[in-house]
Amino acid sequence: MEPTSSSAALEQLWQGFAQFGTDWWYVAVVLATAAVAFAWLATVGTRTAAPDHEGTGGRVGRALDRFGDGAAHVTGLPAWSAAGLLVLLGALLIAYAGFIWDVSWHIDIGRDEFLLSPPHVYLLIGLTGIGAAGVVATALATRSDAQVGWRVRRWTVPLGAAGLLAAGALAVAGFWIDEFWHSVYGLDVTMWSPPHLTMISSAVFSPLAGWLLLTESGKGAGQPWVRRHGRAVLAGATLVSLSAWQLEFDLGVPFWQQGYQPVLLALAAGFALTAARVVLGRGGALLAAGHFIVLRLLGAAMAAGAWEVSVPRFPLYLGAAVAIEIAFHLARDRGPVATSLAAGAGVATLGMAEFWVWSQVVAHHPWQPGLLPFVAVAAVAGLAAAVLGGAFGRVVTHRPAGLSTAGLLAALAVVAVSAALPFPRTTPEADVRVLTTPVGQDRVDVVVEVDPADIAVGADRWEVFAWQGDGRQLLPLRPAGPGRYVTEEPVAVGGDWKAMVRLADGPRLGAVPIAMPADPEYDLPAIELLEVREQPFQFQDELMLREQQDGPTWPAVAGSLLITGMIVGLLGTVIGGVIAAERRRRPDDESTTIVLPAADLEPQR
Fold first, then answer.
1. How far is CA 438 from the centre of its chain?
2. Residues 73 and 171 in one domain
3. How far is CA 35 from CA 42, 90, 409, 593, in A?
């Protein structure tokens, strides 16, 4: 008797889960830890809950009240703020771990044959948790009739909770849009497809909403340890989040040209470290950089030891942090914008110098002299980001932003232009000859000859890249004569390994295959290993995203418009919360309720 369709589906689902074996223990540990933390705080809340909380809202409401009261007892913050922040920080930690695991997984192993793989479940838990933090904060603020945020019908929505709700909706929508996108256009294993960008962006901007939750708690709120260490943890989380867009550079497999790396570094350092210095005071930038290093070391240890995937090499930001501390000292008698500009100048000089040295010593791709124009663009980006970071830091510490609307728009415009300038990409024009010699089981020595001979001189990346064979190789091509280059180690071929020669020089991104397996799912024939292969450079994406397929135009247009609108909505919600937080600031720091001018909102209390 043949199994029914439902039993066959269940069998397929079970096989999908079973193939990951002990990896599920990492998911189980996360869920168990979250359950224990909730139960412990709820127990604390049972002992400290106000009498009027008991017996209202059913079991879920009572459990939520007890969790919030426990969080408030431990942190000294209002229940809605404390519970929202604890859920957010836990969610961000899980999403961060899942992000590193998933990207490294795709590089080393390949695409997922099963949607709910352990890295994806990690990501889904973390991203859902971001939205859950907004839900918890909103529910508790409403139940306690807190005089904060916006009133939306009967709900009290704290300013930070609004941003978290938008981020959570964006993240979860991106996760499921991604599955649809792949079904139409193939499985693109890159961070930069539109659905992937939505998930990354939701996590990147959510710590800013977390700052707003803390701000609305009131000036001086929280236990001493929260004021001393909690804010530093949030500052470090902000720097980690803003560095998420750099992960492919950290792993040595960037999809974009090298010019984006200094720009991304400057934007993260300028905003996060300047904001940390404003919020935490003297030594704040160094403290944020220290928390960043601890978190990144934790991620690297998990990648190397637990998951056994490629380990990212991350920047330290110490030069930028020191430069910002010096800038604040020298500009201590200046106005807020001048101080932020001084901090940005520190990022543009000492910060960029440290990043350059770090690239020579640690990074997979040392920066070349041809990168200097992009470093100049990064310097300008760092100035604008520092202005924004300084204004943000002042608002979340209950001080005037010190930045006019025109200044805000100008800084945002500079950031946008800085991000757009490295965007154009072309294919290098050169003839390439790849010679391979077997040196053992599934290993070959590679010689590459190019014409014109100087096409790769001073290039940002000139290497053999092999990946998705249960590991990855990055082998620089060393000169062995005019226009002739060799690898110092054999290249892995055969099995699931994909291997190619890769050139990146400014906007020129080219590649030539060495060997790639057949892909029956997408009707892609194997690219056979040849003793001699002669051809011009192809555009890099044709090989790195080989699984992509042509599809109808409308899903791409509709999906891109939807995703763009959601990201703009998320940013608008966070920026609106920051503006509202500044406008509601009063000398006595009393909370007020901001009422949105909409017909279906309740009138101001």
1. 40
2. yes
3. 10, 12, 44, 34
Average pLDDT, the chain: 87
Statement to judge: residues 455 and 501 lie in one domain: yes
Tell whether 245 and 117 lie within a shared domain. Answer: no
Q: Is 531 helix (H, G, I), strand (E, B) or coil?
A: coil
Q: What is the pLDDT of residue 2?
A: 44
Helix, strand or coil, per DSSP, at residue 166: helix
Q: Which range among 18-27, 411-420, 435-444 shows the weakest confidence by mean pLDDT? A: 18-27
- Does the pLDDT value for residue 54 go beyond 50? no
Give per-residue pLDDT as tens, 553-567: 777 777 777 777 888
Note whether residue 554 is domain-resident. Answer: no
- Is the domain of 144 the same as that of 192? yes
Between the two ends of the chain, the Cα-to-Cα distance in Å is 68
Range of the domain at 307: 228-425
Domain termination residue (choose one: 521, 536, 551):
536
Q: Which of 132, 321, 354 is nearest to 239 (CA)?
A: 321
For residue 436, the 8-state DSSP code is E
Average pLDDT rounded to a whole number, residues 517-538 = 92
Residue 552 included in any domain: no
Q: Give mean pLDDT, residues 228-243.
A: 93
Boundary of a domain, candidates 370, 405, 425: 425
- The answer on pLDDT for 595 being more than 90 is no
Cα 283 to Cα 233, 273, 345, distances in angstroms: 14, 10, 18
Structure tokens at 480: 């062995």
Q: In a 10 Å sphere around its CB, with 0-12 CB exposed, 13-18 middle and 19+ buried, how is residue 21 labelled? A: exposed
Cβ-in-10-Å burial (0-12, 13-18, 19+) of 128 comes to middle
